[in-house]
Amino acid sequence: SDSHFPIPIAPSHVDFSLHFPKVIEADNKISKKIEFADIGCGFGGLLISLSTLFPDTLMIGMELRDKVTEYVKERILALRKTSSEGQYENISVVRTNSMKYIPNYFEKGQLSKMFFLFPDPHFKEKNHRRRVISTHLLDEYAYVLRAGGIIYTITDVEELGEWMKACLEKHPMFESLTQEELDLDPVVELLCSATEEGQKVARNGGQTFRAIFRRIAYAS
Ligand code: SAM
C-alpha cells in the first residue's frame, strides 16, 4: 500500500540529487527540472532509449510495483557504470502511485512530455475509474504539462485505445497532433520498439492503438 513508500509533500521536497547526482554536481544551481515522465514505466525500456536521444533532458519513470522499480533502478545504475561517455545520468525512477501523487512531484507547466504506454486495461466497467487516463486525471496532466507539451498513449487493447482517445478528444486543454507532426516526431516509433510491452505485442503480431495529443495554451 501507499504507506510503504515516501510521498513528497510538494515538488520542492523531492530530492533530485538522489536521482541525478552527476547532473546536479555539474550544475550547482540545480536549475534543471524533470521534463519527461513515463507513467507506469514497467521495466524502463522507453527511458533508456529516450536517455540517449535527449541527453540534456531529465526524465523520470513512475512505477507502482516495488520489485519492478528496484529492477529499473539497478538497470540504470548498471548502464551508468558501464557507459564510457557518462550516459544515462539523466534518467531515474520513483516508486509511486501516479494516480494519486502526480502534483506532489511536478509543478504547474513543468513537463514537456508524458507517456502512458500499454497501461493496464481494467476491462470491467466498474473498474474504469482505475484507468490512468480519465477526464478527471487529464485535468491533472494538463496542469503539470506546459502549453505545447505532448501526451503519448498507446495500447494493444482496442477498447482502451478508443477510451483514451475519446477522453483526450473531449478534454478542452488537448488537441490531436496532425499526421505530419506524428511523422516528424522521433519519439513516436519508440512507443512500440523501445517498451517491453510494445516489443511483446510486436512479437505476437498484435495491433496497437495510439492517441497522441498536445496540451494547448488556452481552452477555446
Ligand atoms: N509502460 C511499460 C511498457 O510499455 O512496457 C509497462 C506497461 S505495464 C502493462 C503497466 C505498468 O503500469 C505496470 O508496470 C504497473 O505496475 C504500472 N502501474 C499500474 N498502475 C500504476 C499506478 N497507479 N502508478 C504507477 N504505476 C502503475
For the structure shown, list the relevant keywords.
220 residues, alpha/beta, Rossmann fold, seven-stranded mixed beta sheet, 20% strand, globular, binds S-adenosylmethionine
Could you walk me through the main structural features you see in this protein, from its secondary elements to its overall organization?
- Its EC number is 2.1.1.33.
- This is tRNA (guanine-N(7)-)-methyltransferase.
- The chain has 220 residues and is an alpha/beta fold.
- It has one domain (2-215): Vaccinia Virus protein VP39 (Rossmann fold, 3-Layer(aba) Sandwich).
- It is built from nine helices and seven strands; from the N terminus they run αβαβαβαβαβαβαααβ.
- The longest helix is centred in the middle third of the chain and has 17 residues, at 66-82.
- The chain is globular.
- S-adenosylmethionine (SAM) is lined by residues 40-42, 62-65, 68, 97-99, 117-120, 195-198.
